[in-house]
Amino acid sequence: MLEKIVYPVIIIKKKTNRIESHNHSVYEFFYLKTGRISFVINDNTSILESGSVVFIEPLVSHKAKSLENNDFEYCSLVFDKSIFGDNNNACRFFFDSIRINNFLHFPTYILDSFYTLSDTNKKKIPGYEILQTTVIFNLLSYIIQTKQYQTISVLHHSLKYNNSAIDKAVDFIKENYKELIQLQDVLDLTNYSKSHFIKLFKDVTGYHFTEYVNKYRIERACLELLYSKKNITEIASDVGFNNIQYFSRVFKQYMNCTPKQFQKNERCKR
Fold first, then answer.
1. Over residues 131-157, mean pLDDT
2. Res. 32: pLDDT tops 90
């Protein structure tokens, strides 16, 4: 459990000619206000023009570079899905059931509200948390209305898979990530053979089983590093790593920095 609740939204607005490769434990809407850039996500390069919006999932590496002599101007809305409530919340359930497209389009009025949100955040206008939440829900509402997403269960069905086994596996990981998790523990919840389950899990989630477990643990560790007063050894243990060296190695693999560097750099942004 986190020691205190911190409103899980960060607004970043900058002018620069380059964003170095990085990733983070939360979701991000990246809006290119002005300029023309090369944007790399998941090792795939795209050319973005002014007005482009990119949706980035947790722990996905991304970077950007100007294709012109001038700086480009961008705004990022970074949020944790806890804004939708706990796992029993209908909004949270729906958000977890869809896969939003990486590249999105929005009307001008939504982009304008997105861009001006950072000024509201800086001024700490009373009720700015509600304004932030409103913008996020407006973005997601438009995505849903214009079908700029895929339903994960539909993806499963198109592959002729029964996703109930994967749902059970993911739920088990989220409920027991603090403990030692063995593949056999999850296999016992399904009727699949080891080889079939491993393939099914990779096809549906995009990760091997151990990768997914470590990814989720690192996500939880990032939240602890930012919002709790625990030391790194305690956090490593809390999220299921009994060896601090192994925790640091896995953390750097996903976050491209050490836990201490992440904590220092991200807290400076707040």
1. 82
2. yes
